[in-house]
What does this fold into?
Amino acid sequence: MKLLMHMCCGPCSCYPVKRLREEGIEPVGFFFNPNIHPYMEWKMRLDTAKEFAEKVKMEIHTDEEYRIRDFLRRALPLEPETTDEAVRIAAEGGEKARCRMCYSWRLGEAARYAAENGYEAFTSTLFYSIYQMHDLMKETAEHFAKQYGVEFFYEDFRPGWQEGIDICNSLGLYRQPYCGCIFSEEERYSKAIRKAHKKLMKARKAARLQMEQEERHETENF
It folds into this structure.
């Protein structure tokens, strides 16, 4: 199978490439990530993707235009108007509109590139991450597969999370501390958002315990 593999970064490619090769598939890398901020972080991830490809002897194609202005033009209209709301949404970790936009942009571009360059199918290392919205990404990829008439090769790479980290460390690759966009950077380091997240998790736990207690009470009185 001639497979195009969208690469969100070098480290996240480690396990998927190993897994695909075990299945007899030789992927071709495709780096397209207009969400990454700031410029030096984007450059570091681009260079690391190339470094990874060289070390594992994998063909790679890269988009080398820093597109932060395009990303912000798409993302800012989707952001909530108030800081409090932004904190709430970040803490809830729901299906944010900007994340849907970002998945659509990157996976859509991968599908388009695959279709226009003779690939049978495409996939993405995004499906390796335990932090991304997996089902939403799968739905998005399937949509663009139909739109461009190319197969979406689906595999859940998350079971290899730790193995991928181990491979990354053995290769001496730079491993980033946040998703990539300016918003995820804020969510990674903002004390207010971390505090809101802890508060939300505590409330959810209390609600779950209350529900379990009510279910036990109903069962005992049945």
